[in-house]
Amino acid sequence: MTDMKNDLILRTLRGEAVERTPVWMMRQAGRYLPEYMVLRQKYGFFERCQTPALAAEITIQPVDIVGVDAAILFSDILVIPQAMGLEVQMVESRGPLLPEPIKTEADFNRIRVPDTDETLGYVFDAIKLIKQELNGRVPLIGFAGAPWTILCYMVQGKGSKTFDEAKIFCYTQPALAHKLLQMITDTTIAYLKGQVKAGADVIQIFDSWGGLLGPEDFENISLRYIRQIVEALKDEALTIIFAKGAWHSLESMAATGAHGLGIDWCIKPQLARQFAGNNVTLQGNFDPAKLLSPIPVIKAEVKNMLKAFGPGRHIANLGHGILPNVPVDHARAFVDAVKEA
Ligand code: 1CP
C-alpha cells in the first residue's frame, strides 16, 4: 500500500478533523479540458473508457491541471447496461442512445446479471493503473449510477428531461420494474466491489434523476436499491450518495450509513444539515453555471458557500457536473478559492 499524501477527503468522510475543506468537481474529467478534447478527437467514447492507459490519463488530467483533492475514474454509468447485454452508443453532441430499450417481459431475454470480471474487467485494470500512476497523491473515487437512474436509460433509451417512459414502465409494470431494478442492483454491487478490490478509495452513487420521483416513489423505486448497495459496500469503502433533487429524503439517505451525501444548489446547506443530521459529510453545492461568472464573483460566492456549510464534514463540489463551456481558469479559481479559504 502506498501512503496517501493528500487524504483530506478520506478524513472528512470519516468525520475526522481536517486542516481545510477538500474540493473536487463532478464530471471534472471531461470536455472543458483542452487536453481531454485532444484525446476525444482521436478515440471513440467507449474506446477511451475501455483502454486503461487512456482512462488513466483522462482521470489524472484534472488533478494536474486544476489541482483537485481527488481523482474520479473516467468511465460512464452506462457501462452497466452495456455489461448486462444492451447496446449503448454515444452519439456526438446528442449523448447516449440505447437503440433497443427494455419495454416488455420478452425484452428480459436480452439482458442478464453478468460476470463483472469478464464484462467490466477493463475498468478494474484502469483503476489499478490509475492507483499506480497517482502514487498516493490523492484518493481515487470510483462510481456507478443508482439503479433508478440506470433504469431510466435502459427503458427510455436516451436522455430526457422527464424520463416519462421510464416512469410509465415503473407505474404500469411494477413487477417488471422491480425485477429490472434488482438485476441492476446485483450487477452494480459486484461491479463496485470489483472497483474497491482494484483500489478505489471512495465510491459515489450518482442518482442524477432521483429528483424526478416524489418522496414515496423515491423510497420504493430508488432508495430501496441504493440502500442495498451502500450496505454491501460501507464496510469496505467510503460511500457517497448523490441523488440530485431528492433533498426531501436526506434523512433516510443518511440512515443508510453512507459516509457522504451530495446536495445540489436548490437547497440551503443549513437546511440540508438539519435534514441529514450530524453524522454524515455533506458534499456540494455550487451552481455549475456560476463557474461562468467573472473570477472575483466565483471567489466571493465560494466564500459564501463555505460559510453556509460551516467548518467540518463538508466536501466542496458543484451541485451537478461541470459544464463543457467553463474556462479552465474559472475551474481552477473555484478550486483555489476553496483551498485559500
Ligand atoms: O463527448 C464526450 O466526451 C462524452 C461526454 C461524457 C463524458 C466526459 C459522457 C457522455 N460521459 C462522460 C464521463 C462521465 N460520465 C464521468 C467521468 C468522470 C467525471 O466525473 O469526471 C462520470 C462520473 C459520468 C457519469 C454520468 N454519465 C452520469 C451521472 C452524473 C451526471 O452528470 O448526472 C450520467 C447521467 C451519465 C450519462 C451520460 N453520459 C454522457 C452524457 C452526455 C450523459 C448525460 C446524458 C443525459 O443528459 O441524459
Describe the model.
By secondary structure, the protein is an alpha/beta fold. It has one domain (8-340): TIM Barrel, CATH 3.20.20.210. 48% of the residues lie in helices and 12% in strands. The chain contains 14 helices and nine strands. The chain has helices at 8-14, 34-42, 45-50, 52-65, 79-84, 116-134, 147-156, 164-172, 174-198, 215-233, 250-254, 269-276, 295-309, 328-340; strands spanning 71-72, 89-91, 95-97, 140-145, 202-207, 238-243, 260-262, 281-286, 314-318. The strands form two sheets. A seven-stranded parallel sheet has the order 1-4-5-6-7-8-9, sandwiched between helices. The protein has a two-stranded antiparallel ribbon with strand order 2-3. Helix 11 links the parallel strand 6 (238-243) and strand 7 (260-262). The longest helix has 25 residues, at 174-198. The chain is globular. The model has no long low-confidence stretch (mean pLDDT 97). Bound molecules: coproporphyrinogen I.
Summarize the structure.
This protein has 341 residues and is an alpha/beta fold.
Top keywords for this entry?
7-stranded parallel sheet, single chain, TIM Barrel, 9 strands, 341 residues, globular, 12% strand, binds coproporphyrinogen I, alpha/beta, two-stranded antiparallel ribbon
- What kind of sheet is the major sheet? 7 strands, parallel
Which consecutive residue ranges, at least 5 long each, have pLDDT under 50? none
> How many runs of DSSP E, i.e. beta strands?
9
Order of helices and strands: HHHHEHEEHEHHHEHEHEHEHEH
Name the strands of the widest sheet in spatial order.
1-4-5-6-7-8-9
Number of helices: 14
Amount of helix:
40-55%
Q: What is the class in the CATH system?
A: Alpha Beta
CATH topology: TIM Barrel
CATH architecture: Alpha-Beta Barrel
